[in-house]
Design brief:
heterodimer, A: globular, B: alpha/beta, Alpha-Beta Plaits, about 30% strand
């Protein structure tokens, strides 16, 4: 078992290093994150002001924390629906993964998580620093929210990878998977609370979002890390993240099994 | 080292695979592999040849459990490929010529470290085996280079090494020399010969290159439309279809066509008879005898012998069957 753990750790590291292979792409991502961050500052700060200083429980300081933390996580939480494994299924390289004594789902999710975690360095941290320096934000003053927040961020990143994996394995059945990816991209960003914080949603829409794993990818880690919700609530939210994680992992395992039975590796 | 010695490493019985393909609005069924029954014994080296679309890759995918057969049975290393996939792939090394098993953005060295971990090699075993492969395949010069920066020849050597890292019982190479220059091909073949001699590895090879089969394989399986069209030695195959080798000689000065060389057929001349080509059957005579006969009549300054290629052999077998 220890050998297996070591293998997955190596795959995580390989993913991390893969992320580091393209520094210019990371820089481009950071510029995009910062630009959209400033845009959100303009729109959402105006909303807070129009609401007389608070809206949906947010004031300028907590709104800024929401904006910059969510922008910072954007490179690490996969809200775009595209993954390396989807391409590998499409072009048949997945065959190579199946001739290894590994769990294909675990191996590809682990590698993907590694790449996504790397993005915290060139995109996550600078985005947050930019927010602190340019706009200022309210953050917790005790250590516990940070510890729980780090866990919640990690879970959000992993959950996005296990969920996008589900999108990827749909390619076992669909030769052209871009439709599903597009649908994922449209739904995930909105329901994860990327554009508008979920507390500002009308009640029915909040219920819809709550029935999906998307808030657990972005809104929840941001809420826990920024200390917008108290500790007991945070612990509950992390529990919800864990439940979604378990569900997507089980579903992914079932789909991988089913997909393998009908696997028709494309091309020679 | 023939097929009936010991447990078969590969054993298929009536193995078949059909694909349902959409053809416009209609769906039709394509039979890729059709009732294939073959045995490959431990330590054998077998060439698996056939035209494009004959069913070679489909067979390989079924042998390693990444494609479910629609009928028949298959055992690889005594295991059921689909059900026992993880146990099986510990004992098999596969190179799909067109697909990489290396981590594209990482140095070559990293891929081998990851693969060693995946296959659970002990640190000692990892070190000795890696050193052996790096040395024998001359990978030292690009060991720390990212895979995406390698030339095709370098990458193919690394691919073969990666498939052999865990010292598998069975190595399956799907077009390993495709696109390689003569020198790279030569190196790879020499390595495979030494590797097999040292470890007794069973080899199944698909290729378009008759040189690969000649230098690496003791036995040939030829498929046509998913069915076994020939099984036996390469020499026997050449005999069956009468494949001829070609001797090309350059003469000191232009001369008339030499049509009376015993055992050889004059194919043609170039440069007004300065270069002449003779076809001969290797079963009947030898290149040396043909050359001697030619030299009796004219002065030869240069020569080369052209090998038949797989395409040619396959074409002849197919033609004979129709």
């Amino acid at each position: 078992m220890r050998a297996t753990l070591r293998t997955y750790f190596r795959l995580l590291a390989a993913g991390f290093r893969r992320g580091s292979a393209y520094p210019l792409a990371a820089l481009g991502g950071l510029v995009a994150n910062a630009t959209f961050g400033l845009l959100k500052v303009g729109i959402l700060f105006a909303t807070v002001e129009a609401g007389g200083g608070t809206v949906g429980g947010y004031d300028a300081g907590t709104m800024s924390a929401y904006i910059w933390l969510s922008q910072g996580l954007l490179g690490s939480v996969n809200l775009f629906g595209r993954t390396a494994v989807a391409d590998r299924i499409k072009n048949g390289d997945i065959a190579v993964d199946f001739v290894r004594p590994l769990d294909v789902q675990a191996a590809s999710v682990t590698t993907e998580v590694g790449t996504r975690l790397f993005a915290l360095l060139p995109r996550g941290v600078p985005s947050v620093l930019l927010g602190v320096l340019l706009v200022g934000m309210s953050m917790p003053t005790t250590p516990l929210p940070y510890a729980l927040g780090a866990l919640s961020v990690l879970l959000g990143v992993v959950l996005s990878c296990t969920t996008v994996y589900l999108v990827a394995v749909s390619r076992f059945w669909l030769v052209e998977g871009r439709g599903v990816e597009m649908l994922y991209m449209v739904l995930s960003g909105f329901l994860a609370g990327l554009f508008v914080p979920i507390p500002l949603f009308p009640g029915w829409l909040r219920a819809v979002a709550g029935a999906t794993p998307f808030p657990s990818m972005l809104q929840v880690p941001v809420d826990v890390l920024s200390g917008r919700v108290d500790l007991p609530t945070s612990a509950g939210l992390v529990g919800v993240q864990l439940a979604w994680l378990a569900l997507t992992v089980v579903l992914g395992a079932v789909l991988t099994r089913a997909g393998r039975a009908r696997l028709e590796v494309q091309g020679g | 080292m023939q097929g009936d010695v010991g447990e078969p490493v590969i054993e298929t019985e009536g193995l078949g695979r059909e694909f349902r393909v959409r053809d416009g609005l209609r769906r039709r069924t394509v039979v890729a592999v059709d009732g294939l029954s073959v045995r490959v014994g431990a330590g054998e080296a077998v060439g698996y040849i056939g035209a494009n679309g004959a069913g070679k890759s489909t067979t390989i995918k079924m042998l390693v459990g990444i494609l479910v057969p629609t009928r028949g049975s298959v055992r690889t290393c005594g295991l059921r490929p689909v059900q026992d996939r993880r146990r099986l792939v510990r004992r098999v090394g596969v190179v799909f010529g067109q697909r990489s098993q290396l981590w594209w953005d990482l140095p070559v060295r990293e891929s081998f470290a990851i693969l060693a971990s995946i296959h659970g090699l002990s640190p000692d075993r990892e070190r000795s085996r890696t050193d052996e492969l790096v040395e024998r395949l001359e990978m030292g010069a690009y060991w720390t280079t990212p895979v995406r920066q390698l030339s095709l020849g370098q990458r193919m050597r690394a691919e073969v090494a990666a498939a052999l890292l865990h010292s598998p019982d069975l190595v399956i190479l799907d077009e390993p020399t495709i696109g390689l220059d003569v020198l790279s091909k030569q190196r790879l073949r020499e390595f495979l010969v030494t590797e097999r001699r040292a470890h007794g590895t069973t080899l199944l090879l698909t290729t378009h290159d008759m040189g690969d089969v000649e230098r690496l394989c003791e036995r040939v399986l030829l498929v046509d439309h998913g069915r076994l069209a020939y099984e036996g030695t390469l020499a026997g195959l050449s005999r069956t279809v009468g494949v001829e080798r070609v001797l090309v000689v350059d003469l000191a000065e232009p001369g008339p066509d030499l049509v009376t060389v015993p055992g050889a057929r004059h194919l043609g001349s170039e440069g007004g008879g300065l270069r002449q080509r003779f076809a001969f059957d290797a079963e009947v005579t030898t290149a040396a005898k043909v050359l001697a006969a030619v030299s009796e009549q004219v002065e030869v300054v240069d020569l080369s012998v052209e090998e038949p290629d797989v395409e040619d052999v396959v074409r002849r077998v197919y033609a004979a069957r129709r």
